[in-house]
TrEMBL record, chain A:
It holds the Pfam family Gtr1_RagA. GO terms for molecular function: GTP binding; GTPase activity; protein heterodimerization activity. It comes from Drosophila ananassae (Fruit fly). Signal peptide: none annotated. Keywords: Cytoplasm, GTP-binding, Hydrolase, Isopeptide bond, Lysosome, Membrane, Nucleotide-binding, Ubl conjugation. It is found in: Cytoplasm; Endomembrane system; Lysosome. The lineage of its organism: Eukaryota, Metazoa, Ecdysozoa, Arthropoda, Hexapoda. This is Ras-related GTP-binding protein A. The keyword Ubl conjugation applies.
Automatic annotation (TrEMBL), chain B:
GO terms for biological process: cellular response to amino acid starvation; cellular response to amino acid stimulus; negative regulation of autophagy; positive regulation of TORC1 signaling. The keyword GTP-binding applies. This is Ras-related GTP-binding protein C. It catalyses: GTP + H2O = GDP + phosphate + H(+). Keywords: Cytoplasm, GTP-binding, Hydrolase, Lysosome, Membrane, Nucleotide-binding, Nucleus. GO terms for cellular component: cytosol; Gtr1-Gtr2 GTPase complex; lysosomal membrane; nucleoplasm. Belongs to the GTR/RAG GTP-binding protein family. It holds the Pfam family Gtr1_RagA. It comes from Drosophila ananassae (Fruit fly). InterPro entries: Gtr1_RagA (IPR006762), P-loop_NTPase (IPR027417), RagC/D (IPR039400). The keyword Phosphoprotein does not apply. It is found in: Cytoplasm; Lysosome membrane; Nucleus. One of its GO terms (molecular function) is enzyme binding.
Length: 311, 387
């Protein structure tokens, strides 16, 4: 299943940088090496096996922008599932940015009226921390007003922290076809093994695609943080030519297990009873694997396994 | 507390805060500010303004990410920051802005240099460092007068993005000029160490590790313990880490591979970050902290808590981890031995306040031999000094 994702925004707003971090395992520092995108760069990202994201990274220099709205209009804006529009928060030409954004919406309305629209207010790291919330709120209001009659979802992002993962996680989750079934199964799994929390990560990007929590946690940004933490570690392993397979972290208050799960996912299970032997949880994870594998690839076998037991 | 009046004039209070805090001139040391008798290496961080001290401090001790240091305001007055309670190492960072001359009389050099083990001087390699070198010379001369046991460490800083050739060139140049300066001042005997550092990679942690290791008199003992622990447990390499700063205070005698060290640092990051999310930041590292990471190249990383500051990170082959019971048992022995080493140090230190302090160094060497030769840590109790 192919889904077309348009990535647009002014030149230098950070489109290619964020794409490289999320999908090509760049670390934030390395993105300084990236040059300007010429015309449109297509990339196909296999996501969860049967979902292919067809990313159109559209170079944002004015010459290209004008072409997109004129000669290439149909080609670009047809069959779009998602538009991700990136705004540089420090941009000094807000009016021109808005002008292009609105042209984009107009073209989209004609060619792909069903497309979902996301705006990323990017480079938030350039705003001092205490002002970030206020600056973002203001931009969000403007963008919602400017996008009428369409609906837009806004995120504040920076390649230097976990906000980038939050935005992309939310966007990508919306594209997964069986996301509800996945969510149900994760909840069921968490209940059976009495876990505080179960997270499902996509293997290549480490974006959280599904989660279930049974115990309150004060940190509402933890999914993105975990994505970020694990991905950083994955990159440091790759410096040694290794990949990490599984991880167990515990102290007196909790035990967390991160393990390869299906062929496209990693799972993280958090238990609050650290006296429980690690093996018990690991066996439960192993037993659940087969079921989730089937859920991901329904073609391989019959799908009516909803009463499946883990123990 | 009682003092031996024959050795001490009544007005001097020998108080040991860092290692080798006694100076032979009998100069007065820093008054007991912390009220603790814990023995921690004490390090001063100095340098011209904008040389990167605050950034180093934030990155190494406060877990700030390097890119965020761009926002740090420059320090406009003398600022003292103590990092005491969370780390095995006691650090003091003194920021000296250019317009304040610290040689002026109000600057209490006895107090500052007296109890410190090492002086780290930060020089910005990307800047014109003439002024820094002058300042450095003055600092060294002043500090050496007060405390001759101080170790001088030069961090040639911000070397990220500089080619290897010009790194070596600046190191050579700075080395040459500082040595010349010191021999002009008639201080040939002072030994300087140089480190190329950057906050954007692990070189800053590596450099601090080397500085700190020089200040730990128990280092040979710790290394010995590691050398005994490792082969008996089927482990290939182990680092004893100060968790907060990711400085390794000891490792076994096999060579250190920078990449392995970096991976261990990253493991500590992962463990602390995940633990702060799922317990709380204050209790992230507690007595139950442990972690196990499996890599696909048949390698296992294994972390265990040693005490509230220290963690042991081991690297081993997967097949050797089948004997986890043996490893865990050996680890407990190792942990007990370490706590005895530090207890002994504490005890000795208290006793040193009563007896002659001159040969502190020699006595310690004796302790090492005792522990080094026998595997039984209880032998250490024999090292108790005379009452």
């Amino acid at each position: 299943m192919k889904k077309k994702v348009l990535l647009m925004g002014k030149s230098g707003s950070g489109k290619t940088s964020m794409r490289s971090i999320i999908f090509a395992n760049y670390i934030a520092r390395d993105t300084t090496r990236l040059g300007a995108t010429i015309d449109v760069e297509h990339s196909h990202v296999r996501f969860l096996g049967n979902l292919v994201l067809n990313l159109w990274d559209c170079g944002g220099q004015e010459g290209f922008m004008k072409q997109y709205f004129a000669s290439q209009r149909d080609n670009i804006f047809r069959n779009v599932e998602v538009l991700i529009y990136v705004f540089d928060v420090e941009s000094r030409e807000m009016e021109r940015d808005v002008h292009y954004y609105q042209s984009c919406l107009e073209a989209l309305l004609q060619n792909s009226p069903e497309a979902k629209i996301f705006c990323l207010v990017h480079k938030m790291d350039l705003v001092p921390e205490e002002h970030r919330e206020a600056v973002f709120k203001e931009r969000e209001e403007d963008l919602i007003r400017l996008s009428k009659p369409g609906n837009v979802t806004c995120f504040r992002t920076s390649i230097w922290d976990e906000t980038l993962y939050k935005a992309w996680s939310s966007i990508v989750t919306m594209l997964i076809p069986n996301v509800a079934a996945l969510e149900n199964s994760v909840t069921h799994f968490a209940n059976v093994i009495e876990a505080d929390e179960v997270l499902l990560f996509e293997k290549a990007t480490f974006l959280v695609i599904s989660h279930c929590q049974s115990k309150k946690n004060r940190d509402s940004h933890r999914f993105e943080k975990v994505s970020n933490i694990i991905k950083q570690f994955k990159l440091s392993c790759s410096k040694l030519g290794a990949k990490f397979q599984s991880m167990e972290v515990r102290n007196n208050a909790f035990a967390a297990f991160i393990d390869t799960f299906t062929s496209n996912t990693y799972v993280m299970v958090v238990m609050s009873d650290p006296t429980l032997p690690s093996e018990a949880t690991l066996v439960n994870i192993r037993n659940a694997r087969k079921y989730f594998e089937e859920l991901e690839n329904p073609n391989n076998s019959a799908m009516n396994h909803h009463g499946h037991k883990y123990h | 507390m009682s003092y031996d009046d024959d050795d001490y004039p009544a007005d001097t209070f020998p108080k040991d805060f860092g290692y080798r805090a006694y100076n032979q001139d009998g100069l007065e040391l820093e008054p007991n500010a912390t009220g603790s008798s814990e023995t921690k290496p004490r390090i001063l961080l100095m340098g011209l303004r904008r040389s990167g001290k605050s950034s180093i401090q934030k990155v190494v001790f406060h877990k700030m990410s390097p890119n965020e240091t761009l926002f740090l305001e420059s320090t406009s007055k003398i600022v003292k920051d103590d990092i005491n309670n969370s780390s095995f190492v006691q650090f003091q960072i003194w920021d000296f802005p250019g317009q304040i001359d610290f040689i002026e009389p109000t600057f209490d050099s006895d107090m500052i240099f007296g109890g410190c083990g090492a002086l780290v001087f930060v020089i910005d390699a990307k800047d014109d460092y003439n002024e820094a070198l002058t300042k450095f010379k003055n600092t060294v001369i002043k500090a050496y007068k007060v405390n001759q046991r101080i170790k001088f460490e030069v961090f040639i800083h911000k070397v990220d993005g500089i080619s290897d050739d010009s790194k070596m060139e600046s190191q050579r140049d700075i080395h040459q000029r500082t040595s010349d300066d010191l021999s002009e001042a008639g201080l040939n005997q002072i030994h300087l160490s140089f480190h190329l550092t950057s906050i954007y990679d692990h070189s800053i942690f590596e450099a601090f590790s080397k500085v700190v290791q020089k200040l730990i008199p128990q280092l040979p003992t710790l290394e010995n313990l590691l050398n005994i622990f490792i082969p008996n447990s089927g482990i290939e390499k182990a680092f004893l880490f100060d968790v907060v700063s990711k400085i390794y205070i000891a490792t076994d005698s096999s060579p250190v591979d920078m990449q392995t060290y970096e991976l261990c640092c990253d493991m500590i990051d992962v463990v602390i970050d995940l633990s702060s999310i799922y317990s709380s930041e204050e209790t992230a590292f507690d007595s139950g902290s442990s972690s196990l990471i499996k890599l696909n190249n048949n390698t296992i990383l294994y972390l265990r808590e040693v005490n509230k500051f220290l963690a042991l990170v081991c690297i081993l082959r997967e097949e050797n981890f089948n004997r986890q019971g043996v490893i865990d048992y050996n680890f407990i022995c190792f942990r007990d031995a370490i706590s005895k080493v530090f207890e002994l140090r504490l005890k000795r230190q208290k006793e040193l306040e009563n007896i002659d302090q001159d040969d502190d160094q020699d006595d310690l060497v004796e302790d090492h031999t005792l522990i080094g030769h026998g595997t039984d840590p209880s032998v250490m109790s024999r090292a108790r000094p005379i009452d």
